[in-house]
């Protein structure tokens, strides 16, 4: 197992792309696999983590920040029946600005002492808590969805990660689309120049049911395609990666590029039509 993955952050350039669904299900699946996992809801103004898990937080990031209690932040985490812990976002948007980037970074650092893995729902856009989230993360996900504006903003988001020298840790996450007019995940990866792409199946029904029941899809439909994609991504994340000498690392990268070439060509061909 690759034990270097301790912090995972999922963000997006535009709202409603499915990033909370992705973060919740990745986190619950990690907890199911026996890793002590906490989901941190860093969507400080409009976080939905507690809603997705049907938890009613009496303590949130807001209370911890007010008391400057970063060293005891684990006491502010609520336990879900799946075994996952949640550090909830404040219950009202006006409390968001009480949580500073410095306090948040200290809190994440402190969570490392209690948890094996910390999954951060970094919310939408680039705000006070998303930048420390991405900087502290070992794996960043940029979740995107169809629509010209979303695609333009996702590209800007990925470009910004490159400017901040964070792009090496980034994978693009995109949901499969049935409608012909929509940008396909492989096309999105080419447009955004993302080095790695995670494709999620369309799971509208399972996710809608999950919102009603508070039972994450990886628990309610473990054999479904969405849960399968989540498990496959976790396997990828934690599979042992051999330390290669610099020369071989470039060779491996070249082979990776060649492996993605058919998807790139297909994407270009489709967009030509
Ligand atoms: N793989 C998927 N297939 C189909 N629908 C999805 C998928 N992922 C998410 N959705 C749906 O998209 C909507 C938004 O999902 P979610 O709340 O996870 O997105 P978000 O990016 O966190 O949104 P917000 O900007 O409100 O925080 C929900 O109705 C959800 O069920
Ligand atoms: Mg969300």
Automatic annotation (TrEMBL):
<dbReference type="InterPro" id="IPR050625">
    <property type="entry name" value="ParA/MinD_ATPase"/>
</dbReference>
<dbReference type="InterPro" id="IPR025669">
    <property type="entry name" value="AAA_dom"/>
</dbReference>
<dbReference type="InterPro" id="IPR027417">
    <property type="entry name" value="P-loop_NTPase"/>
</dbReference>
<protein>
    <submittedName>
        <fullName>CpaE family protein</fullName>
    </submittedName>
</protein>
<dbReference type="Pfam" id="PF13614">
    <property type="entry name" value="AAA_31"/>
</dbReference>
<feature type="domain" description="AAA">
    <location>
        <begin position="6"/>
        <end position="164"/>
    </location>
</feature>
